[in-house]
Amino acid sequence: xxxxxxxxxxxxxxxxxxxxxxxxxxxxxxxxxxxxxxxxxxxxxxxxxxxxxxxxxxxxxxxxxxxxxxxxxxxxxxxxxxxxxxxxxxxxxxxxxxxxxxxxxxxxxxxxxxxxxxxxxxxxxxxxxxxxxxxxxxxxxxxxxxxxxxxxxxxxxxxxxxxxxxxxxxxxxxxxxxxxxxxxxxxxxxxxxxxxxxxxxxxxxxxxxxxxxxxxxxxxxxxxxxxxxxxxxxxxxxxxxxxxxxxxxxxxxxxxxxxxxxxxxxxxxxxxxxxxxxxxxxxxxxx
Length: 287
What we know:
CATH class of the largest domain: Mainly Beta
Distance between the termini: 8 Å
Strand order of the largest sheet: 2-1-7-8-11-25
Number of domains: 2
Radius of gyration: 23 Å
Strand content: over 45%
Shape: globular
CATH topology of the largest domain: Jelly Rolls
Order of helices and strands: EEEEEEHEEEEEEEEEEEEEEEEEEE
CATH architecture of the largest domain: Sandwich
Helix content: under 10%
């Protein structure tokens, strides 16, 4: 069973489905865009017959979500409608959230691109029906719980793979060498890295591609490398930009679907030093 809600930096609205209205916002039948995202192909015609696929990518997800707002009066409906409008505002980074009874949580970011301008059913004494037209730039559902690579460091750490959506722990080798990383999702995911001193330089390779943080870190120093809305940031524990400490031509690869090899090396490490990676699983479908 799945419980849906709309969440953003402005607040949370639980969405009821038919059969149990514990919230004044009801997800109506007729919802679209929650199945598989679109597959987009570039085709090449054959001079003889038929053709072939030249390239493929997964497109943005478009959807229409009918939502009925229930209230005891027009004033209450007006208040509830304004609350929904505030929470789905572009600047609030809204998400449709799916929660399973198992505890799994998946998020789908979206922006309203139309709808909710004129009520479909008009203003009534007890309800208002809106249809939200939305677009999801990232068509994948993203898990709340990150898969963790490590921590790999000077102290021994456990080795083992917990179930999907839990944490992947990989221990260090005697040479601080290669480990296997499993991505159980449907798409490559960006990896954030946290490097804690004392030790360095530190090199990270994922599938043979990666970067070197050339400046040794002292005890207590922590550098975080992560991908945000505007690209990659390299910041220390004080928020200072440490991009200049990277070696030439750094690359921050995504972890592909399935298995890949990570090779991590830190020189002159001492107790407390560690390198940890994090990524969130992406899936095409929740149901």
